[in-house]
């Protein structure tokens, strides 16, 4: 959250760049801002207000690798800190980690908040040695459940507020103050609620309301547990390490054990398998998805002066060889489009088809940015003309996420794009954003910064040489990518096919997960894949 002075200064800079977007002679003038930019954004580290349930991600040893603003504020932890710093007792963390190794479900960890209050975090680890997702176990009742309960038994507003207070562990005298009522009146209302609920004690009242809350959360779509319903997941993937001839690669595998082989080139922000719907849909549809972490992300280093697209494709082919997979469908998210196109061009015998959703096309001319929100045009201009400025913008943005939590991601990434911001703010997107940030931050944003440059390069000469079926998907609500440019890309490819998706933005991988994977399955079957079992 910026101060008004800092925001005004930043907007002034954006305004200057915007006014010079079509004036190449302004580059020298704008270059002077390179040294001023950190000063402009000095106040980015001001804390955010509490945003709800604490959520964080840790590695297998308990070191924090991602957290939201509520966790940063409530626990006082930062990236790289240990859960041992907040564990209620010295033995709590070792016991928690030991329990996770042998457990098939979630395990609680008792911690102390900055205010000295004890609190439980519910931790899950889907794979041995993988990430640990933790979510705050809240004492209260979620508002949607409270609203439905109040409607079902005719609670008046003050009774609903009273019940919420009881569920949150507040004493009667504190609730009375909050409701501006006498304690005797509040106690009479408690009896009224008990009568409406058909229970005989306050303990029965709270346990019944809690059971209803738990059942409600468990029956929500994609919500196998209370943690999942609030943006974390019980199915968060870990990466195994693959030694390629060009260095170590983080490798993710999920889906059906004997499924149709799919190679995923991940994008810049949507993670790999952190999105619960992606993993569930892959298993249900019979897909076996393998996703290498691209150079500059996660465990995969991006050496100085290395060409990331060529490096990633070489590593991907070695992964396929190691798995014994001769042919695959390639799924590409966002800038993964560029990587998928390269692989399809150099190894058409290995790629039966590509599905790019959302598609990131080549940057053809400056006119292509005309419909983008101002700050996206600024980023595109900076990436093309002042890559040093773009690197600073990206670095500051990642640092802001590290300090303030993933809640700032929708605004940072999709400023001016209301549809995509709302999509990324949905609870079910939280785990994907957590994972996406961790992948970028693990290499200090090296891959992310390079992605910003790749996004703004013209690679049409390469696209025309891609001979395999290439399905280019674009959401009608997408303001960050030109629809015309995606259509041109599909038209330029010998077997390119454009598809417009109604009610979708650039966040297609999160909003239309099952639709995308059904199409992957269809094109794979059409090419004859999936008829023989493969081992995932």
What does this structure look like?
The protein has three domains: 55-136, PAS domain (Beta-Lactamase, 2-Layer Sandwich); 143-225, Orthogonal Bundle (Arc Repressor Mutant, subunit A); 240-359 and 368-526, Rossmann fold (3-Layer(aba) Sandwich). It is elongated. It is built from 23 helices and 13 strands. Helix 7 (157-167) packs antiparallel against helix 8, helix 12 (308-323) packs across helix 13 and helix 15 (387-404) packs across helix 19. The chain has 536 residues and is an alpha/beta fold. Residues 26-50 and 221-237 have low confidence and may be disordered. It has helices at 4-19, 27-31, 37-40, 69-75, 92-102, 143-153, 157-167, 172-179, 183-197, 202-218, 276-285, 308-323, 336-346, 374-385, 387-404, 409-413, 418-424, 430-441, 446-455, 460-463, 483-492, 508-511, 513-526, and strands spanning 55-58, 64-67, 107-112, 118-124, 132-136, 240-244, 247-255, 260-265, 287-292, 328-334, 351-359, 470-475, 496-501. The longest helix is centred in the C-terminal third of the chain and has 18 residues, at 387-404. The strands form two sheets. Strands 6-7-9-8-10-11-12-13 form an eight-stranded mixed β-sheet, with helices on both faces. A five-stranded antiparallel β-sheet has the order 2-1-5-4-3, with helices on both faces. Residues 152-209 form the HTH luxR-type domain. GO terms for molecular function: DNA binding; hydrolase activity.
């Amino acid at each position: 959250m910026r101060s008004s002075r800092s925001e005004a200064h930043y907007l002034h800079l954006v305004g200057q760049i915007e006014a010079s977007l079509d004036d190449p002679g302004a580059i020298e003038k704008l270059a002077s801002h390179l040294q001023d930019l950190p000063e402009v954004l000095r106040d980015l580290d001001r804390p955010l207000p509490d945003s709800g349930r604490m959520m964080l991600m840790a590695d297998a040893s308990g070191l924090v690798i991602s957290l939201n603003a509520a966790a940063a504020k409530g626990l006082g932890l930062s990236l790289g800190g240990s859960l041992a710093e907040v564990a209620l007792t010295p033995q709590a963390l070792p016991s928690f980690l030991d329990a996770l190794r042998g457990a098939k479900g979630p395990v609680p960890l008792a911690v102390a908040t900055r205010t000295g209050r004890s609190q439980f975090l519910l931790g899950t680890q889907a794979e041995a040695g993988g990430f640990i997702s933790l979510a705050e176990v809240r004492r209260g009742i979620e508002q949607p459940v409270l609203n439905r309960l109040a409607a079902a038994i005719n609670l008046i507003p003050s009774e609903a507020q009273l019940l919420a207070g009881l569920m949150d562990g507040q004493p009667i005298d504190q609730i009375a103050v909050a409701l501006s009522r006498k304690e005797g009146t509040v106690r009479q209302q408690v009896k009224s609620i008990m009568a409406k609920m058909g229970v005989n004690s306050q303990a029965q009242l709270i346990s019944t309301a809690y059971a209803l809350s738990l059942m409600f959360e468990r029956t929500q779509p994609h919500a196998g547990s209370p943690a999942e319903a609030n943006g974390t997941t019980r199915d968060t993937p870990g990466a195994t390490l693959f030694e390629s001839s060009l260095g170590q690669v983080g490798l993710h595998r999920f889906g059906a054990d004997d499924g149709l082989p799919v190679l995923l080139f991940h994008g810049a922000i949507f993670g790999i398998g952190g999105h619960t719907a992606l993993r569930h849909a892959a298993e249900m549809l019979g897909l076996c998805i393998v996703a290498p972490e691209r150079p500059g992300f996660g465990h995969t280093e991006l050496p100085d002066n290395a060409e990331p697209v060529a490096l990633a494709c070489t590593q991907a082919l070695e992964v396929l060889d190691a798995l014994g997979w001769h042919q695959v469908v390639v799924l590409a998210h966002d800038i993964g489009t560029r990587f998928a196109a390269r692989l399809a061009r150099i190894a058409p015998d290995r790629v039966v088809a590509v599905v790019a959703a959302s598609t990131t096309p080549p940057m053809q001319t400056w006119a292509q940015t005309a419909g983008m929100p101002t700050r996206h045009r600024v980023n595109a201009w900076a990436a093309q003309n002042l890559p040093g400025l773009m690197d600073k913008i990206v670095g500051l943005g990642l640092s802001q996420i590290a300090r303030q939590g993933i809640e700032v991601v929708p605004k940072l990434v999709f400023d001016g794009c209301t549809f995509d911001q709302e999509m990324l703010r949905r609870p079910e997107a939280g785990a994907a954003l957590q994972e996406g940030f961790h992948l970028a931050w693990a290499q200090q944003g090296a891959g992310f910064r390079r992605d910003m440059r790749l996004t703004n390069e013209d690679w049409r000469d390469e696209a025309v040489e891609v001979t395999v079926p290439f399905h280019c998907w674009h959401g009608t609500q997408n303001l960050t990518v030109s629809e015309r440019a995606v259509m041109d890309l599909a038209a330029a490819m010998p077997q390119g096919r454009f598809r417009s998706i109604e009610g979708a933005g650039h966040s297609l991988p999160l909003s239309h997960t099952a639709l995308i994977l059904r199409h992957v399955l269809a094109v794979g079957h059409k090419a004859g894949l999936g008829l023989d079992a493969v081992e995932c």
